Amino acid sequence: MPVLRVNQAGVERSISLTPGLSLRETLHRANVHLRSTCGGAGVCGRCRVLITYGRTNAPTARETARISPDDLARGVRLACQVRPEHDIGINTQVRPEHDIGINTQVRPEHDIGINTQVRPEHDIGITVQADVYPSLSGPAGHWRSLADDEYAPVDISPMPDAPPYGAAVDIGSTQIRVSIWDMRSGRRIAGRIGLNPQSYFGADILTRLAAAAESPDNARLIRMAAREAVGEALQDMAQAHGLNLREVGQVVIVGNTAMLALLSGRNHGLLLNPDNWERTIDCSPDDTPALRELWGVAESAIIDIVQPVAGFVGSDLLADIIATKLAEGPDSALLIDFGTNSEIALWDGREILVASTAGGPAFEGGGIGCGMPAEPGAIFRVEQDEASGAFHHETIGGGEPEGICGSGLVDILACLIRSGELRENGKFLHHHAGGRLQIVIGRTDMVLTTQDIDALQRAKAAIAAATTRLMKLAGMHPEKLRRVCVCGAFGRYLDVRNAQFIGLLPGIADDTRVEHGGNSALAGCEALLFASDRAAVLRSVAGKANHYNMSTDTDFEELFIDSLFLRPMRWPM
Amino acid sequence: MLEDVITAYNEAVFDTDRERALKVIHDAVDRGVSPEDVVFKVVIPAIEQMIKSISESFDANLAQHFMTSQIAAEVTEEMLARFRKAPEVVGHIVIGTAQGDLHSLGKRIVIGCLKSLMIDVTDLGVNVPPEKFVDEAVARNAQVIGISAMMVHTARGENGCIMVRELLRKRGLEDRIKIIVGGAPYRYDLELYKTVGADASADDGITAGRVIAGLIKEVRR
Question: Does A111 score more than 70 pLDDT?
Fold first, then answer.
């Protein structure tokens, strides 16, 4: 049987090749997860690999549509389109000899690094560029402890009569967060964050839902991927803290509608039909005993999937609203939970206007060549020295940079537009140079392409257009906002001025409070875990919320196109 | 004078500066350039140039595509209203997105291009049931049905092009009405349009205009 040799971070191992499987599928089975946003359909062009020697199937039409002739000639391929029949070797880490620092020189060459570890004894060797999730290569065993400052504040009162432990779960399209609590003392024992392994089936939720609709088998795989991921996180915490999961008496779960439907395994097919995008989808599981058994929690444990609002607006937004106390005072407040499926809530003192907008995973680092989630190793802040033009960056955790997360990308866009290197319409000034801006930082080769800018423009436009639309519906001028809450991992590090400069956030009055909610959906879920009457708490929030469906809103479409420009939001638009 | 207008318009479009593009056109019309010349000698060549550069580049920026098409559509609409005599229409198409698909931006670009190419367009909107495509095409004497689908499951789905073809066949309309499809899935799988029973597909609005003109000729023969 032919063998695939994988060199990942200097560690080599061999995997048997199953004829017929794509390189991407083979790597996935071996827990090497190439970045992709299309679920392996050959559409997103992200799972690029470089074949350095040997032969395999000829490039498919999808590859010729995505890879330039020069790159194809060099052996660049899409892993989802390559079906190797012979021995191959791959290296997932490239270490080009570059200095640390950002280089803004526009480089006409290609964004593929050179593998210095070619193994001539094998038939085929490929070099994987930085398109492998560097630090989050889940699904198994890649759970990271949430640091103390990653938790959003949460008000809870101990429950002396409850079963010993309880768990809160926030299932995001890109990341899953889980925490375990000592219910009787009201103390958080541990928290974990990890990649949602369903990403393999598509980064955006519609691709993932369509994958689940393809066959019952696929739906089961997607359902089990998330269920097992939550189970692993629970196990990981139980082992680290000597807990008996059988003493977990409650698990409360929030997420967007698609994530909850896929987790429960029910009604996710309904979400593919736009006729259902204004109704509430029932996401309660009908196999709770199986969930209890899989997670190893108490046989009598209450497993509560908090039901979504309507359309794609899920219970994660309700949790955000609860955690931030958004709708509890007279102060008008805007909340944006940035994600693959961004959710927006606007409190005008009377009603909460809510909407979701599928801008794609760009701000979570998805679909961006040098992008990564806001995780250790991510460049989260970039500044440009006005005099010298030199860039300075900060990395989460302070270590060697492995990629750039959303807030870093926002900073870079703002810097490039200020310096005039990028136009408001997303064109590089040096358009003759192949449209690639090289940002070499440390060991990984980081390049920002016009396609990356495009993805960021569209993600930004979707969020800005939905925000503006809700503001208009409420008849509210942004300067009247008293609070702005930016939630999600991305929001935690976001430079508000830069976000306003590119029009991602509205211009607000100087004394408006900007709150970086961080993992506020998890915090809201934790608050629900300790609520003595959960249903009542949820009713009080959901009762004030009105869902506005952006996908059938023609004003939204106009605003979307206008918001593609990287410039401050104009008002009135 | 027309040369200057073309240069100024192209520069504005390159910068995707809507206000400037409109000003260039308004100034030109004020100075005596005919609305016909604006459409045929300024706007259409600019769209063709844009599409050429997009199809030749692997770094195409969809955002810019949206922005420039928006400008072209706006200018064309305005100029068509000012044509000295009603423009001679090539034919009629009803267009919409497949059932289950709400992605309207691609369709919007195509409609702008088709109008500038003198094809009469009825926009059926998004999430259009197959019956509606056929009923509207018959009611409006359209020679072509255009179906846009941006997702694989709507491009391949049974209630999209496949059902429209089935309905045309059942009602004996296949000689009178042709089907053209468009959207990302058809670009990545060049044979897909045949699989779902369409007569043609096109990658962009300008190509669509040419292909549709051909289909209309076929029907009228």
Answer: no
The total number of residues shown for chain B amounts to 221
Domain final residue pick, B23, B53, B82: B82
Of B61, B108, B184, the CB nearest to A43: B184
Neighbours of A336 (CB within 10 A): 28
Residue A129: pLDDT above 50? no
Q: State how far the Cα of A406 lies from the Cα of A380, in Å rounded to an integer.
A: 7
Residues B54 and B142 in one domain: no
pLDDT digits (tens, 9 = 90+) for A268-289: 989 988 888 888 889 999 999 9
Q: Do B100 and A273 touch (CB under 8 A)?
A: yes
Whichever domain contains B22, its CATH number is: 1.10.1240
Chain B, nearest residue to A62 by Cα: B188
Which residues from chain A sit within 8 angstroms of residue B15, using beta carbons? 423, 425
Q: Work out the average pLDDT over B5-23.
A: 89
Domain identity same for B103 and B184? yes
Res. A444 pLDDT band, cuts 50 70 90: low
User: Is A42 in Cβ contact with B188 (below 8 Å)?
Assistant: yes
Which ipTM was obtained for this model? Answer: 0.78
CA A27 to CA A32: how far, in whole Å? 5
Domain end position, chosen among B63, B82, B101: B82
* Shortest distance, CA A425 to any CA of chain B (angstroms): 7
CB–CB contact A425 B15 (8 Å): yes
User: In A, which residues are within 8 Å of B105 by CB distance?
Assistant: 557, 560-561
| Residues B124 and B211 placed together within one structural domain of the fold | yes
B101 shares a domain with B206? yes
pLDDT at residue A31 tops 90: no
State the pLDDT at residue A263: 96
Q: Tell me, yes or no, whether B105 and B212 share the same domain.
A: yes
Domains of chain A: 3-97+108-128 (3.10.20.30), 144-317 (3.30.420.480), 327-360+455-563 (3.30.420), 361-453 (no CATH)
Q: Note the pLDDT tens digit of each residue in A37-49.
A: 677 777 776 677 7
- pLDDT at position B96 is 96
What is residue A409's DSSP assignment?
H
- Across the interface, whether the CB atoms of A557 and B64 are under 8 A apart is answered no
C-alpha dist (Å) from residue A520 to A151, A257, A425: 7, 17, 33
Please say if the pLDDT value at position A377 is more than 50: yes
The alpha carbon dihedral of A495, A500, A506, A507 has a sign of positive
Is residue A467 very low, low, confident or very high in pLDDT (cuts 50, 70, 90)?
A: very high
Q: What is the pLDDT of residue B108?
A: 81
Of B67, B153, B184, the CB nearest to A564: B67
Query: Are B62 and B51 a contacting pair, CB within 8 Å?
Result: no
Q: Are residues B20 and B103 both part of a single domain?
A: no
Mean pLDDT to the nearest integer, B19-28: 93
Distance between CA atoms of residues A573 and B71, nearest Å: 17
Could you tell me which residues come within 8 angstroms of residue A563 by beta carbon, excluding any fewer than 6 positions away?
A: A460, A461, A462, A464, A465, A468, A503, A569
Closest residue to A210, CB basis, from B102, B104, B153: B153
Q: Are residues B57 and B95 in the same domain?
A: no
Compute CA A346 distance to the chain's CA centroid, rounded to the nearest angstrom. Answer: 22
Please state, rounded to an integer, the average pLDDT across all residues of chain A. 83
The whole domain housing B33 covers 2-82
Whole-model pTM: value is: 0.81
Number of compact structural domains in chain B: 2
Instruction: Report chain B residues touching chain A, CB-CB < 8 A.
Output: 14-16, 57-64, 66-67, 70, 100-102, 104-105, 108, 126-127, 151-153, 184, 187-190
Question: Are B137 and B28 found together in one domain?
Answer: no
CB B15 to CB A274 under 8 A? Answer: no
> Which among B61, B104, B188 has the least Cβ separation from residue A453?
B61
Domain containing B148 — which CATH number?
3.40.50.280
CA distance readout (Å), A36 to A9, A40, A41, A226, B101 = 20, 7, 9, 18, 22
